[in-house]
Specification:
By secondary structure, the protein is mainly alpha-helical. It contains nine helices and no strands. Helix 8 (111-127) runs antiparallel to helix 9.
């Protein structure tokens, strides 16, 4: 009787732990898997680029406006979607948004402009039904890239 009672107590502790562990391993998907597809990433990126293109606050900075006018937005959307896809663990290759590519020519947004950019990004992610956890991952990815580009200049 004592043995079966002790076994039951151990069983009641171990099983939930094992189930929780297997569920967390199964739940660990890449950001790409959480977002669903390259098509969905491309849609979010296109909406974001369009929002940036139409944002009067950012366009009021002459260096940003001049840079923005010089861009091929279709090419930017494709390269940015490829970068997000690749950075999120998807099957895409990084586009040329390096120092020598589009990002290397871009003016540096000031702190307030970065806040506006992140705010726009959050609005677009919500509009496209991206979950809160994925929103945080994407914003952290963008801020990480922003930090890298500042340290490279």
């Amino acid at each position: 009787m004592r043995w079966s009672r002790r076994f039951f107590q151990i069983f009641m502790v171990v099983v939930p732990v094992l189930v929780g562990m297997s569920m967390s391993v199964a739940a660990e998907k890449t950001l790409y898997q959480k977002l669903g597809s390259k098509k969905r990433i491309s849609k979010v990126v296109a909406d974001f680029v369009n929002a940036l293109d139409q944002d009067a606050r950012l366009q009021s900075n002459p260096s940003i406006l001049d840079y923005w006018k010089s861009l091929n937005l279709k090419k930017l959307k494709k390269q940015l979607a490829d970068n997000v896809c690749a950075s999120a663990g998807g099957p895409c290759k990084l586009g040329d948004l390096t120092q020598k590519g589009l990002a290397g020519k871009a003016p540096r947004p000031n702190a307030m402009e970065w806040l506006m950019i992140v705010d726009l990004l959050n609005q677009i992610l919500k509009k496209n039904g991206v979950g809160e956890d994925e929103q945080r991952e994407i914003v952290l990815m963008v801020l990480s890239e922003q930090q890298k580009s500042r340290s490279e200049k």
